[in-house]
C-alpha cells in the first residue's frame, strides 16, 4: 500500500547573486509503500536533502506534489518524524527529557511523558542513561536519542538525513543493525538519505539511485537480499556493481573507450 507519493516534482532555487536559477530536482516521481525502507542514494548536491525536506514539509516543490497518507504535504506534521545529520539535542536537558521534548512542549504531565519516553529509550537500548546529559554520551548514543525522539510521536514515516555520517565505520555498522531492528519492531516506514552504496544496501528494502544535478531518479531498485546482509557476499556485490554503473555512467564509458 502506497504511503508516500512524489508526483512530477521539480525544484528550482533562485541564485540572486548570479541572477540565475539552480535546478536542484527535475521531474521526480516516486512511490514509497507502507513499511518500506527506502534509501535515497546519490552524489553530493544531487538533491537528496531537498527531496527529503519536501516530504518533511520544510520546503515546497516549484512544480509537482508530495503527499503522505493521501494528504498533500504543505507543512511539517506529527505524521512525519525527522532525524537530522547531527542529533540536535538540547544539551541542558537529560536524555529522557530530550526524548520526551515534544510531549512536555505540548503540556503533558512530567510523569506521563517520562513513562512514554521510557519505551523508546529501551527500544534504542539506552536503558540506564535516562538521567545522563548528551555531553556524557557518545555520538552513536546521541544519534539513538534522536531516533527515540522521532519514534515517540508514533509517526507514519521517519525521515533520516545521513544520520550516521559523522560516526566511525564500526559504530555505523552497529547502528545499521540497530536501525533495522527498530524499523521492524516499530513497523515504521523509513526514507533514509545517504551517499554510501554499502549503507544503502545494508539498510534498504529499496534504493532510489539519483543522478548528479539536476537530480533525477535513475532507477528504483528493490533489494532482495536476506538479513542480516553480508557486505562481502556475491549477491551484495552484484547490486553494488549495478549501482556503481548507474552512478558513474560517464566514467564507465570513458574506460570502455
Ligand atoms: N536553500 C537553497 N538555496 C539555494 N540552493 C540550494 C538550497 N538548498 C539546496 N540548494 C542547491 O540544490 C542542490 C541540491 O542540494 P541538496 O542539499 O538537496 O543536495 P544533497 O544531494 O543532499 O547533497 P549532500 O549529499 O552534499 O548533502 C545543490 O546544488 C544546492 O546547492
TrEMBL record:
Gene Ontology molecular functions: ATP binding
Pfam families membership: ABC_tran
Domain of life: Bacteria
Keywords in alphabetical order: ATP-binding, Cell membrane, Membrane, Nucleotide-binding, Transport
Domain ABC transporter, residue spans: 4-237
Protein family per UniProt: Belongs to the ABC transporter superfamily.
Name by which UniProt lists this protein: ABC transporter ATP-binding protein
UniProt organism field: Polaromonas jejuensis
Amino acid at each position: 500500500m502506497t504511503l508516500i507519493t512524489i508526483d512530477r516534482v521539480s525544484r528550482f532555487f533562485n541564485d540572486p547573486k548570479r541572477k540565475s536559477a539552480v535546478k536542484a530536482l527535475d521531474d521526480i516521481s516516486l512511490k514509497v509503500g507502507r513499511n518500506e525502507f527506502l534509501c535515497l542514494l546519490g552524489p553530493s548536491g544531487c538533491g537528496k536533502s531537498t527531496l527529503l525536506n519536501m516530504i518533511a514539509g520544510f520546503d515546497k516543490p516549484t512544480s509537482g506534489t508530495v503527499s503522505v497518507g493521501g494528504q498533500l504535504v504543505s507543512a511539517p506534521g506529527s505524521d512525519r518524524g525527522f532525524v537530522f545529520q547531527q542529533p540536535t539535542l538540547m544539551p541542558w536537558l537529560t536524555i529522557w527529557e530530550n526524548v520526551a521534548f515534544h510531549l512536555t512542549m505540548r503540556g503533558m504531565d512530567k510523569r506521563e511523558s517520562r513513562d512514554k519516553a521510557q519505551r523508546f529509550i529501551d527500544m534504542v537500548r539506552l536503558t540506564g542513561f535516562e538521567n545522563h546529559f548528551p555531553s556524557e554520551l557518545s555520538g552513536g548514543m546521541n544519534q539513538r536519542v534522536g531516533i527515540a525522539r522521532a519514534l515517540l510521536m508514533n509517526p507514519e514515516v521517519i525521515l533520516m538525513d545521513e544520520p550516521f555520517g559523522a560516526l566511525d565505520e564500526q559504530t555505523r555498522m552497529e547502528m545499521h543493525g540497530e536501525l533495522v531492528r527498530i524499523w521492524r519492531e516499530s513497523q515504521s516506514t523509513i526514507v533514509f538519505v545517504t551517499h554510501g552504496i554499502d549503507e544503502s544496501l545494508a539498510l534498504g528494502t529499496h534504493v532510489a539511485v539519483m543522478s548528479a544535478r539536476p537530480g533525477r531518479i535513475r532507477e528504483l531498485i528493490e533489494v532482495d537480499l536476506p538479513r542480516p546482509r553480508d557486505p562481502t557476499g556475491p549477491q551484495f556485490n552484484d547490486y553494488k556493481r549495478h549501482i556503481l554503473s548507474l552512478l558513474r555512467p560517464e566514467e564507465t564509458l570513458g574506460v570502455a573507450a
